[in-house]
Each structure stands twice: as structure tokens, then as C-alpha cells.
Design goal:
alpha+beta, binds flavin-adenine dinucleotide, 20 strands, 5-stranded parallel sheet, FAD/NAD(P)-binding domain, 7-stranded antiparallel sheet, 414 residues
């Protein structure tokens, strides 16, 4: 340990790295943050363009279930920094939050930029130093970290280190997964990064893709095997994207990987039973065209009506058979959109590689946090919540490692 204040070296100025920087600075550490980009938190700012869904207000048990097989692993971290703690943190930066009609939590401004400005101002007041345009490239045999800088290579050390390098979606924002081979060379086990919350590929007819790319399918339920999700999807030239697709993305991705394709069924009228739908269809006059029945009797938007023709060249006129089709339009998913276009990454540093507070077993004194860990979750605020929660757990472990005490987390019970 160096004489004077303990030194914390943080690589990655996304929300995970910035959270740890603030916490350790508040505990008295001298903190330096490195990042390969010219400015911090670019993906966080991008998330702000969609309203910045910070977290979710649903009950603890359903919240935790969103992390699937990683749920048990992440529970202690999420209990240590639950959604109310994130909301209190954001409020402390001058941004009150509110719960939207879907239960999602947003900052009042619906943006990330005012929040980030206040956050960076506070970090600078706390004495946190930043070194941008420095790309982490290696862990050297003496334990120091090597960086490629704008002019020359440099090395840095700390009494404690955090790597918070994110996943590999939207690499233009900074996180490009370049850390994977670097850590693997040091003997750290990484599950390959894969797209999560990504679009899927469907072989639309040229006419359908040209007419409807960009159009929403509203108030639908999508099913894949035993899993289902309610909400909205957006038709793209390549297939589908949007909330219901993202909610099923892990299942769809894994099905495609194993079987080469996946089946997705879309219920275009989830509020009506098959029998009720069939009655409405049967009430049409026999001379009414199919398009007019779908529009006038069922209120289907043109893109929803055309989707039936994509799935079945000759949709049945028999009321019950047509109702059955509308309740489960079968689509074949031929592939998933690539990682660089996904919202987040699955895979990352395996859980058996870290201690309970996210210290690398192979590199004592080096901690990891955020999306570079091996968990995934749907959109809905679960990504940022786990990013902050794992960062808080790492900050606690780092504080213990260098013998400082952190101020308590401001939170109500979850
Ligand atoms: C379009 C979009 C919308 C999103 N919307 C939401 C949302 O509304 N709600 C939500 O919960 N989540 C959302 N997310 C996900 C969320 O932004 C991420 O999960 C979160 O930013 C992860 O934080 P992190 O700190 O782990 O990593 P990142 O934010 O990716 O930060 C990692 C940092 O490490 C730096 N870095 C990477 N490699 C190196 C290297 N070799 N050397 C030096 N620096 C390096 C990067 O430049 C970056 O600054 C969205 C993501 C996208 C792409």
C-alpha cells in the first residue's frame, strides 16, 4: 500500500466505473478513472435518448426473477443496492424520478445528460481525476495495467483496481469487448459475449418489408416455447425488434444457436378469446373482403392484417380457423441481429472467477463490475440497476481491501 491516501485505479467511465469512483472518493481514496473514449459514459447518454429507464418499481421477487439463472448470484448485490437506493442516488444529483405507467422508473427530464453533468461535477469536486483516450491493453507481469494513449503507451497502478469495461454492443460508444482476450491471457474465464435484447431476423416478403419496416405491432403477446411477453414490437427490414422481442431474446438466441431457427407466435388480439374473435368474424357479411373484416370487425392495423398474409398465403375464411391464426401468427426466426446492434451483451466474466464482492480470484486486489460480468436481463431498467448494484458491491469490497470506510447507502427498504 502506498503512503498517504490509498490509490484506486478505475478503468471504464461508464455508470459502473463512475459509481465506484464516487463511492471510493467519498471514503477518502485518491481515485483516477481511465477510459478509451474522449469523454465518459457514452452508452449511458445513448440510453438517455430512449428516456433513460433507470430501474423498475415491481416487487422484489419478480424483479430478481428477471435475471434468470444469474438471479441467485446477483441477489446479495441487488439487496445491497436495490431500486430505491438508485432512485435516492439520482435524486441526490438533483433529478427526481417517477414511475411510468408500465412500472418503469425514469428521471423527470427523461434524459441522461443533466444527470451525467451533475454527477461529473460532483466527482470533480471530490477530486476524482480522469484520463481519457487511454485504451487498456494488458495486465503486465508486475501487476500494472498497460494503456495505449494518444501519443504513447503508458502504465498505471493502484492499491486497488476496478475494471468496468462493459459488454460489446454499440462499440462506437466505447465498449467493444477488447478486454476479453486481455483477461483470458491472464487466465480469467470469460463466457463468450453474445447479443442480448437484440432484434431477430425473419424472411419477410419484399413487399411487406418495404411497406411496413418501422411500423409497430401494438398490444400483442409473443410466445416462444413456454415463455411469453406482452407489449409492442416494431417491424424492421430484417425482422422484428422492440420490447416483446427483447423480453424473449435469450430464449430466441439460444433456440437459434441450437436448432438453426426458432418459432415465435404472435397473438394480435390478446384481449379477446378465440371464441369471441370467431363470433366477431362470423358477424361479418359474406361479401365483405378479408381486409375489411380484419379492419372493421377486429380493428387490426394494416401491418397486423398483412402479417397474417406473411404467415399464411391464403388466410382461412372459416371464423374459428381465422381466429386461431390471429391468436398465434406463426413466424420463423432465422437468426438474431449481431452483437454490435444489440442493446446489451450476454456472457462475460464467469461467476466462478469472482468472490462475493466481485474481486477476481486470479488477481487479488482487482475487482470487476457492470455489464462485463456474465449476466443478462431484459430491458425495463434491469440493466442499469444490476450495473449499479454490482458496482456498489465491488466498491464495498475495494474499500475493505484498502482499509477505508464508505458512507452508508441512502435507501429505504425494498
Ligand atoms: C441503445 C441503448 C439503450 C439502453 N437503454 C437502457 C435503459 O433505458 N435502461 C437500462 O437499464 N439500460 C439501458 N441500456 C444498457 C446500459 O446502458 C448498459 O447496461 C450500461 O451502460 C452498462 O454500464 P457499464 O458501466 O457496465 O458499461 P458501459 O456503460 O459500457 O461503460 C464501459 C466503459 O468502459 C470503456 N472501455 C471499454 N473498453 C475499454 C478499454 N479497453 N480501455 C479503456 N476503456 C474501455 C468504454 O469506453 C466505456 O466508457 C441501453 C443500452 C443501449 C446500447
Amino acid at each position: 500500500m502506498s503512503a498517504g491516501r490509498p490509490r484506486a485505479l478505475i478503468v471504464g467511465a461508464g455508470p459502473a466505473g463512475l459509481h465506484v469512483a464516487g463511492r471510493l472518493a467519498a471514503g477518502g481514496a485518491a481515485v483516477t478513472v481511465y477510459d478509451r473514449m474522449p469523454s465518459p459514459a457514452r452508452k449511458f447518454l445513448l440510453a438517455g435518448r430512449g428516456g433513460l429507464n433507470l430501474t423498475h418499481s415491481e416487487p422484489r421477487s419478480s424483479f430478481l426473477a428477471r435475471y434468470g439463472e444469474a438471479s441467485g448470484w446477483l441477489t446479495p448485490a441487488l439487496d445491497g443496492f436495490p431500486p430505491p437506493a438508485l432512485r435516492a442516488f439520482v435524486a441526490g444529483l438533483g433529478e427526481a424520478t417517477f414511475i411510468g405507467s408500465s412500472g418503469r422508473v425514469f428521471p423527470r427530464s427523461f434524459k441522461a445528460s443533466p444527470l451525467l453533468r451533475a454527477w461529473l461535477a460532483r466527482l470533480r469536486d471530490q477530486g476524482v481525476a480522469f484520463r481519457f483516450r487511454r485504451r487498456f491493453t494488458a495486465i503486465r507481469s508486475d501487476g500494472s495495467l498497460a494503456f495505449d494513449g494518444p501519443e504513447e503507451a503508458e502504465a498505471a497502478t493502484g492499491d486497488v483496481v476496478l475494471l468496468a469495461l462493459g459488454g460489446a454492443s454499440w462499440p462506437r460508444m466505447g465498449s467493444d469487448g477488447g478486454w476479453v482476450p486481455v483477461l483470458e491471457r491472464t487466465g480469467i474465464g470469460v463466457r463468450p459475449l453474445a447479443p442480448a435484447n437484440m432484434g431477430v431476423e425473419i424472411d419477410w416478403s419484399a413487399d411487406f418489408a418495404a411497406r411496413f419496416a418501422g411500423s409497430p405491432l401494438k398490444r400483442i403477446v409473443a410466445r416462444c416455447g413456454s415463455r411469453s411477453a406482452a407489449g409492442e414490437a416494431v417491424i424492421t427490414a430484417e425482422g422484428l425488434e422492440g420490447g416483446v422481442v427483447y423480453a424473449l431474446s435469450a430464449t430466441l438466441r439460444d433456440e437459434v444457436a441450437v436448432h438453426g431457427a426458432a418459432r415465435l407466435a404472435i397473438d394480435l388480439k390478446p384481449d379477446l378469446t378465440e371464441a369471441a374473435l370467431a363470433m366477431r368474424i362470423a358477424s361479418a357479411r359474406s361479401k365483405d373482403s378479408l381486409s375489411s373484416v380484419l379492419k372493421k370487425k377486429l380493428g387490426l392495423a394494416p401491418q397486423a392484417a398483412s402479417l397474417l398474409r406473411e404467415a399464411s398465403a391464403e388466410p382461412p375464411r372459416d371464423p374459428l380457423a381465422l381466429a386461431t391464426l390471429i391468436k398465434g401468427v406463426p413466424l420463423t426466426i432465422l437468426g438474431v441481429r449481431p452483437l454490435d446492434r444489440a442493446i446489451s451483451s450476454a456472457g462475460g466474466i464467469r461467476r466462478d472467477q469472482v468472490t462475493a464482492d466481485f474481486e477476481l480470484r486470479a488477481l487479488p486486489g482487482t475487482f470487476v463490475a457492470g455489464e462485463m460480468l456474465d449476466w443478462e436481463a431484459p430491458t425495463g431498467g434491469y440493466l442499469l440497476q444490476a450495473t449499479f448494484a454490482t458496482a456498489e458491491a465491488a466498491a464495498q469490497g475495494m474499500a475493505r481491501h484498502i482499509g477505508i470506510t464508505l458512507p452508508p447507502v441512502a435507501t429505504e427498504r425494498w
